[in-house]
Amino acid sequence: MLGTFAALLTLGGMAAIPSQLEGVHRIVMMGDSITQLGASPKGYVTLISNTLKSDFPSQPIEVINAGISGHRSNDMLARFQHDVLDQKPDLATINVGVNDVWHNFRTPDWSARVPAGNSGRGVSLDAYLANVGKMIDMARAAGVRVWLVSPTLVYEDLDCAENRRLRQYAQAEKRLASEKGVGFVDLNSLFRATVAAYRKGAGQTQLLLTVDGVHMNDQGNALMAGGILKALGVPIPDTISPK
């Protein structure tokens, strides 16, 4: 996927620190409920933290979870100083966008879907980009490296209105990352490709990566962790080998 493995060398059985993590001792992961739940024993935040501790014992890296359920880009911007910058990280990941889109397709009491996606509870694309851009600027002014982590999916129906709109947000976020010169992890494309391949054999009704179409099961958490680790130049742990 990403050509970062070339930067990794093995010295005495210990992986060298990839350039993306040079000088990094603390990472804050900003996000919504997907990130908040990523603190579970098999959650993506936990998997990343454990992998970094295992692979780079000579450079301890603390990972702080800053996910709060239901938060959109405007909510994250409002708490970015306190929850991210005040923690004095060297690197911050920002995973935002699912709720900016999803909430516009739900009624205020969450009792019904709004097919047109115009409930007014989400965040427009322009506002979303402005909010993410401000968080990038705040981080860079504080000397914090930034990696944007694209939103994953809203349901595992790749052609639903929610995912068509979310795809637009993810693609716009990728352009923003390029314009701002920060890292970008395209989990949206990774999740879409994985679900599409699964659907060819399993049909359209089985969930592969989530428990409810949005929040990760163990496989979804592993895929998130793998995508982020690869972007940071870290090899995915190989825990299965032939007997």
Features:
globular; alpha/beta; 8 helices; 243 residues; two-stranded antiparallel ribbon; Rossmann fold
Describe how the helices and strands are arranged.
Layout: E1 10-11, E2 14-15, E3 26-31, H1 33-36, H2 44-55, E4 62-67, H3 73-83, E5 91-95, H4 98-102, H5 125-141, E6 145-149, H6 161-180, E7 183-185, H7 187-202, H8 218-231
Helix pairs in contact: 2-8, 3-5, 5-6
What is the number of helices?
8
Give me the strand/helix succession. EEEHHEHEHHEHEHH
- Characterize the overall form: globular
Largest sheet: 5 strands, parallel
Could you estimate the helical fraction of the residues in percent?
40-55%
CATH class: Alpha Beta
Strand element count: 7
**Any idea how many domains?**
1
What spatial order of strands do you see in the largest sheet?
4-3-5-6-7
Summed up:
The chain is an alpha/beta fold and 243 residues long.
Structure report:
There is one protein chain. With 243 residues, the chain is an alpha/beta fold. The chain has a single domain (22-231), classed as 3-Layer(aba) Sandwich (Rossmann fold). The chain has helices spanning 33-36, 44-55, 73-83, 98-102, 125-141, 161-180, 187-202, 218-231; strands spanning 10-11, 14-15, 26-31, 62-67, 91-95, 145-149, 183-185. Residues 1-13 have low confidence and may be disordered.
